[in-house]
Design brief:
Distance between the termini: 51 Å
Strand content: over 45%
Number of helices: 2
Mean pLDDT: 86
Keywords: Coiled coil, Signal
Radius of gyration: 31 Å
Oligomer: single chain
Helix content: 10-25%
Protein name: Carbohydrate porin
Order of helices and strands: HHEEEEEEEEEEEEEEEEEEEEE
Structural class: mainly beta
Number of strands: 21
Number of domains: 2
CATH architecture of the largest domain: Beta Barrel
């Protein structure tokens, strides 16, 4: 039974004294008896109301817990080994297929990755993931990917969670640059930062992360890029876009330092993450040219209001290379990824913006949530004779259990994945044609 608060007991006493002064003894006794009965009824009603309120709150909390549990149960579970080297090992992965159709034709009689008539449907990726953790703070992650004709290590590191909240990772890990793991982007295509090695970039080194109140700091040193896997190219069977030594006498990335700071304004009406990223590294010559270096600096911000997310970024980058390199110019650097090479302007600015909306769909049995988005980014080059490379993407990501599906329309005048192969070596560099082309893309992924 609930205890009646003291303020109500005081009210009851005051009423009794007032009645004693206002009425004769007999009438007062009768009225007091009736009043006491009424007060007791009100107290019991108040107690019942409070009990119902507490039960309602408990029910609401329980419903929230059930919702979170349902979300957790709908996520890919993988296979867990609870006693593996004194910790827990989770084995998972993904398989993805891709359909694409573009408004551009084939190349030299061969279909491109998105031919005009009917499009292409291909197996995109198969990957294996390992995640390890034990009670002593030791953690680790490994991911290996298989594509059509080539395969490579995507991630492979061991780390430690310190008692003060810091974390260290040693091995092939994601470089801290930009507002998040994938820059500003929500899309399958990413934004133009990715294609010059400044978003979702994996390298070999050590990274330390620490939160100090509302401030998150990342500091990292990378001995080299992640290396090449197995494919038809010399040095480009890899996931991340890196400077590659495809000619065997070009440049190789080494001795890179990264710093990133992000301050989280959590109490603002529009939650805001404001940050800056810095990168500096060497380019080791494997040929007659002099060694080079590279640097990049970026300011970025993520604003969240209700279910909307607005992400913006402005980056300046510079690759300082010798004109005696195999490409014969200091205005272009050779990059590689996905078993092919592409040339990139040596110096440029990159503005990028993304607007997205997260919508849960509890009334739709086959869909947990949808994320529509629109994105724009551009490589604005220093060289006067080079033309800018723009990329615009309008699409949505659809999630249900282990399924994650992208549906996108991309329009670009300078991107290796939107257009045919006639200008692959040129679209991120001089971009001499700069013709606008379109691609509709569906990527179906199942994660387990």
């Amino acid at each position: 039974m609930m205890t009646v608060p003291s303020k109500y007991r005081r009210t009851k006493s005051v009423l009794a004294v007032s009645l004693a002064l206002a009425f004769p003894a007999g009438a007062m006794a009768q009225s007091a008896t009736e009043l006491n009965a009424r007060i007791n009824e009100l107290e019991q009603e108040l107690a019942r109301t409070r009990a119902q309120l507490e039960a309602s709150k408990a029910g609401e909390a329980g419903a929230k817990k059930e919702l979170e549990a349902a979300k957790a149960n709908s996520a890919p579970a993988g296979i867990a080994f609870d006693n593996f080297l004194g910790g827990k090992l989770k084995v998972g992965g993904a398989i993805r297929a891709n359909y694409a159709v573009g408004d551009y034709g084939d190349y030299q009689g061969k279909p491109t990755r998105a031919e005009r008539d009917g499009g292409n449907f291909t197996l995109d990726t198969y990957r294996i993931n390992l995640d390890y953790a034990n009670d002593n703070g030791v953690i680790g992650k490994l991911e290996y990917r298989f594509y059509n004709g080539y395969h490579f290590l995507h991630t492979g590191w061991l780390g430690y969670n310190f008692d003060d909240g810091g974390q260290i990772q040693v091995g092939v890990n994601r470089v801290p640059f930009g507002p998040g793991a994938y820059g500003v982007s929500q899309s399958w295509f990413f934004d133009q930062h990715y294609y010059v090695g400044l978003a979702d970039d994996m390298d070999l080194g050590v990274k330390y992360t620490k939160s100090l109140g509302n401030l998150t700091i990342d500091a990292a040193y990378y001995l080299s890029d992640e290396g090449t896997g197995h494919g038809g190219s010399v040095d480009s069977a890899r996931y991340s876009y890196d400077v590659v030594n495809e000619s065997r006498n070009g440049y190789e990335e080494e001795n890179q330092v990264n710093l990133r700071a992000i301050y989280h304004f959590k109490d603002w009406a529009v939650k805001t993450d404001l940050g800056a990223s810095l990168m500096y590294g060497k380019l080791n010559s494997q040929g007659p040219q002099d060694d080079g270096d590279r640097w990049a600096a970026s300011a970025h911000m993520v604003n969240k209001w209700n279910n909307f997310t607005l992400a913006t970024q402005l980056t300046r980058y510079s690759f300082n290379v010798d004109k005696n390199q195999p490409l014969g110019t200091d205005k272009v650097v050779r990059f590689g990824a996905f078993d092919f090479t592409t040339d990139v302007a040596a110096k440029a600015w990159i503005p990028a913006v993304s607007l997205s909306y997260y919508k849960e769909t509890p009334s739709i049995p086959w869909l947990d949530y949808v994320i529509p988005y629109i994105e724009y980014s551009s490589i604005v080059k220093d060289e006067d004779s080079f033309k800018n490379s723009d990329l615009m993407t309008l699409g949505a990501a659809w999630g249900h259990g282990g399924w994650y599906i992208y549906t996108e329309w991309a329009r670009s005048n300078g991107n290796d994945f939107v257009g045919n192969e006639t200008s692959f070596a040129d679209r991120l560099a001089a971009n001499s044609k700069r013709d606008w082309q379109n691609r509709f893309n569906i990527n179906l992924g199942y994660y387990f």
